[in-house]
Amino acid sequence: MPLPVTPPASPASLSQNARTVLEKRYLVKDKSGKPTETPEEMFWRVATVVAEADRRYGHSDAEIQATANTFYELMTQRRFEPNSPTLMNAGRPLGQLSACFVLPVDDALSNGHAGIYDTLRSMALIHQSGGGTGFSFSRIRAKGSMVRSTTGVASGPISFMNLYDASTDAVKQGGTRRGANMGILRVDHPDILDFIACKEDLTKVVNFNISVGITDAFMKALEANAEYDLIDPVSKQVTGQLKSTDVWDKMITGAWRTGEPGVFFIDEANRYNPVPHLGAYEATNPCGEQPLLPYDVCNLGSVNVGYYVENGEMNWTAFAADIHHSTHFLDNIIDVNKYPLPEIDALSKRIRRIGLGVMGFADALIRLGIAYDTPEGVAFGKRVMEFLDVEGKKESERLAKQRGAFPEWSQSIFGPDETCARDASGGRVRAMQMLRNCNVTTVAPTGTISIIAGCSSGLEPLFAVAFMRNQAGVMMPDVNEDFVAIAKAEGWYSEALMERIAKTGTVAHAEVPAKWQKVFVTANLIAPEWHVKMQAAFQEHCDSAISKTTNFAHTATKDDVRDIYTLAWKMNCKGVTVYRDGSRDGQVLSTGATETAKAERKGEGAAPPSAEAKREIAELSGMMAESRAENERLKKMLFDAEAENLQRRQKRARPDTPLRSTSIKKDTPLGVLFAHITEDDKGQPFEVFINLGKAGGSAMADAEAMGRMISLSLRSGISLNEIHRQLRGISSDKAVGLGPNKVLSVPDAIGLALEDWMRMKQGVQQELLSLSQTTQAQSPSSAARPIEAVVRTSTGGMEQVAMFNTGDNNAESFIGTCPDCGSQLEYAEGCVKCHVCGFSECG
User: 308 and 418 in one domain?
Assistant: First the structure.
């Protein structure tokens, strides 16, 4: 008998922000985009579909109804949430409930199975279904190798990674959700140096995270300051050697500059591969927490640890019960999932891999009064993960007795002595345990589901205690609920304090007691080694791996990054990802409060300024005051002139004489843009023509429309200065370039082109002075960047023009803005994500 369609009477305990996210991303909608279900109906839809899997194991209608009710309460009370595809697709035609997959890439263009183009097709199908993909390109022969079948020369793995990246863009442009990829290359592949360098230009391979597969042999060579062998992936012969320290330094430099490549300790991961007889781990999912076999799949969910802290104590009994329910839930997913490929379906049911993790860990620490970056915090993390692992396996064992062990159990590391997989020395890897699932635990990113659950993300510390949120057009402070409750209970709450914290990004204010300043520490104030210590504590009792970011200050050195990579290896982490504040655009992301607070946390307060410094500061202040006064005078002159011009409002007619044209080239997130700016016989800008992409394409159509509107504005008396100010600083979900050359969007690129044109014209310097405050507030400032343009004269001649503009390097910049809600993006859990609405570049 089918389960009732109507959900139980108990409403979901959700914040307004959670309901907004659900309405935007998860709820079923009609053709007009209007939701046709409530959050409660969505959770019931998921609960009933997943509970129905029990029917194939002989459960009665009443038992299935009870299980559905349990699953519903788990989700609506925010104790557990499955990964997003389950919430989106359960009970709907697509029925694809998994987030990520790993696909093999063989050294063949096509072999009907896992050739380069075979896998490309499989990737497109997975992206079309909303999944992300991980690949190892280590099987592909090196660039320049002979191809016997054609007597040609191989183009190497990087070229095919670019092909996969382009295909991801094509699927994305087709209207589906962005595809996310992980690309891995073994450190002993002959093309490893090209791979490490492939994302130095962040406009390249934009749909991939990349990691280097680090072997034990490489790390031993590194310790000995020795060379190591490069292995041909086809012949398995040594083809050369590289100095281990040189390769390591290149990885460190890349991570220091941009956060990539990450590191995947591939031999460490394979030591705990539960089914080595089926193959070795070669790659991970896009966020790195799941080392997977070829055609393997992520099946993820997370328990909200903070929920179980009651009156300053952890309720381990309730936590254990929900771990059991959550494990049951994830095992059922395997039976009701509609996989995108038959190979994935088959392997999933042979090994029944699940990944139960945590979220709300930082909340739990706060409610227990424990600081994240302390031995007590790390010890609690280790205890939580060990408890999750033990209780999860107890439930997997119960399910195995009831339903049968996973089919490959006998030859797995958990199998009986006679048949189990063993390590290189012949010893057991794990104690014998009859399990339903080859792996039970992981720690995955929980960006959107943690917003639904109203908790902190994964095992990460808080990103911010407070931030300013746009609510109905008004910027309001959004403050951590625990912080507000503690402040009110202890009598030091005030709205002014909350707003100050939201604006400064720190709780280091006199009103906040020292204890709570330590407990409410945020990710960017935690010393990097504590991030790794916490990751290692969780890794010790985790079947899979950990998705976590180690945060660095902008001032961190390459040696600091090197120390963390080495520490992660020594502490038996399976991977490590770092992010240096502001490194994706070459400037400081968070200044002042962040660095001061971090110095104070280390006991490194700044020395008072000297008398000479005070004198220089006073002189500089005077100069700044004079400059501000001059700017105000110039702004008034320009305002009066523009007001007079706008009063006339007469559209200029096209001159009879040929127009002089200047063409300026700009890189944009959508490709190369050309702005052609014409001027009349008086040297005034008259029209702007924009070219971007192919004729007939949507990008070109939008660019042409902007050019027409700019031209109409110019001929109607609106100054180029004003148009430039409106365009500069507009952000999109993707930016290109670094530091002063950063372009935030297509409109920003057009604004930059107009700015370059003005700088090339005599007599506009004073006009541009008035832009300083606006431009600095809106966008990354410039620093001696060259302007290149081709000027076409009325006689058809051309001359190359190269000029330089100067600017201030102290402007605040950012990774980018969220394409969904416009909030600032952060780098956490190994991925670029939004802490407000849950958008994630990892899919």
Answer: yes
